[in-house]
């Protein structure tokens, strides 16, 4: 019986917006939108000009209609029995001249239209064609009224489009900015986490998780920089017989021993004390706010017991500890010299049989001048 093997599809990577890509898309949308708005605004200016021009033509048609009404009224009046200067005939001729002027102005205005438009069908104002002229003016008024209404509708549509595009651009740009801010915030948080990890790795031992030599020395520098001195002590611990553990049982057992011992050290010390791995099988404990040498002896004894308990727990029977103790300011003049002083005291213990503790000997006072 054949077994069907379903091919494993690679997990699809989730697309995450990149700040540069988001900015480029937003910029492209912004440029396209602004170009569209510029075209529409230019068209709006043109429509506004045409709208004003149509209003001028309508005003000219109205003036021509008024002149035509005046001429038609004088034409219907009966002639006087005795012609007098300035009478009806003279007024009628003046009205025809005024009408001819208005019609000529209207025809010239139509001829100057920015967009081609039909000319005035009847542009000759005489007594025989007043009715034809009235029809021509009415047709012209209807045409330009429709044209003005059409332009007004187009202006409203273009204004609505511009407003819609502005609203869309606002949403797009705001969304792009928010997306870019989110991406930058995520990257900043990730970089802050990595920075914290790197800083922690630079100041801690990778195997045991204890502070390393660098952090201990930095703590001593801060103590030395204080204006008001705070007494402190350093206990330097070296494991006796640890090399034999690595040679006999292997480095993995040695690593397990160091990890277990570091945990016991942390549990046996106060929260304010600092225990650091100086490298290899050497540790250091920085103690502040202690009562005196008796309390330091008690701490050194606890540390030695931690080493013995770890050795017994792993069933080795090989490892013990030598502890050197240096204090500031009574035994060491500078807190930054505590490591060297405690290390020297520790080697005194090793020279005298190991598995014990010793205090750093204070320097001899200067001899008095003769």
Mean pLDDT: 84
Shape: rod-shaped
Question: Taking Cα atoms only, what radius of gyration do you get, to the nearest Å?
Answer: 52 Å
**Total E-strand runs:** 5
Report, as a whole number of angstroms, the end-to-end distance.
109 Å
- Largest sheet: number of strands, sense, barrel closure: 5 strands, mixed
Number of domains: 2
CATH class of the largest domain: Mainly Alpha
How large a portion of the residues is in β-strands, by DSSP E? 5-15%
User: Within the CATH hierarchy, at the fold level, what is the topology of the largest domain?
Assistant: f41 fragment of flagellin, N-terminal domain
Q: Element order, helices and strands?
A: HHHHEHHEEHEHE
Q: State the helical fraction.
A: 55-70%
**Tally of individual helices:** 8
Order of strands side by side in the largest beta sheet? Answer: 2-3-1-4-5
**Structural class category:** alpha+beta
Low-confidence stretches: none
CATH architecture of the largest domain: Up-down Bundle
Characterise this structure.
The protein has 370 residues and is α+β, with helices and mostly antiparallel strands. The protein has two domains: 19-176, f41 fragment of flagellin, N-terminal domain (Up-down Bundle), CATH 1.20.1330; 213-359, Reverse transcriptase/Diguanylate cyclase domain (Alpha-Beta Plaits), CATH 3.30.70. The protein contains eight helices and five strands. Helix 1 packs antiparallel against helix 3, helix 5 (242-249) runs antiparallel to helix 6 and helix 6 runs antiparallel to helix 7. The termini are far apart.
């Amino acid at each position: 019986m054949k077994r069907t093997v379903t091919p494993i599809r690679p997990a699809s990577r989730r697309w995450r917006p990149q700040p540069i890509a988001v900015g480029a898309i937003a910029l492209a949308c912004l440029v396209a939108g602004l170009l569209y708005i510029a075209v529409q605004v230019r068209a709006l200016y043109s429509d506004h000009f045409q709208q004003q021009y149509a209003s001028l033509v309508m005003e000219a048609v109205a003036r021509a209609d008024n002149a035509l009404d005046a001429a038609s009224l004088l034409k219907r009046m009966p002639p006087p029995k005795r012609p007098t200067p300035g009478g009806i005939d003279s007024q009628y001729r003046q009205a025809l001249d005024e009408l001819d002027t208005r019609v000529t102005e209207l025809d010239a205005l139509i001829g100057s239209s920015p967009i081609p438009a039909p000319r005035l069908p009847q542009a000759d104002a005489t007594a025989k064609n007043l009715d034809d002229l009235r029809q021509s003016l009415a047709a012209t008024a209807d045409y330009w009224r429709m044209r003005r209404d059409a332009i007004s509708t187009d202006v409203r549509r273009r204004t609505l489009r511009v407003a819609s595009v502005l609203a869309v651009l606002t949403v797009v740009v705001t969304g792009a900015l928010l997306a870019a801010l989110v991406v930058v915030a995520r990257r900043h948080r990730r970089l802050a986490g990595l920075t914290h990890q790197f800083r922690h790795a630079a100041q801690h031992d990778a195997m045991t998780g204890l502070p390393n030599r660098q952090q201990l020395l930095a703590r001593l520098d801060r103590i030395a920089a204080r204006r008001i001195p705070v007494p402190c002590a350093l206990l330097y611990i070296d494991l006796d017989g640890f090399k034999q553990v690595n040679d006999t049982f292997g480095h993995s057992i040695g690593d397990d021993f160091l990890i277990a011992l570091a945990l016991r050290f942390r549990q046996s010390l106060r929260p304010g004390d600092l225990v650091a791995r100086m490298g290899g099988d050497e540790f250091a404990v920085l103690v502040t706010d202690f009562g005196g040498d008796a309390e330091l002896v008690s701490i050194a004894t606890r540390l030695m017991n931690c080493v013995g308990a770890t050795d017994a727990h792993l069933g080795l029977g090989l490892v013990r500890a030598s502890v050197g103790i240096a204090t500031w300011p009574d035994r060491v003049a500078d807190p930054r010299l505590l490591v060297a002083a405690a290390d020297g005291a520790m080697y005194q213990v090793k020279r005298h049989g190991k598995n014990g503790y010793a205090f750093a000997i204070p320097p001899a006072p200067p001899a008095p001048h003769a």
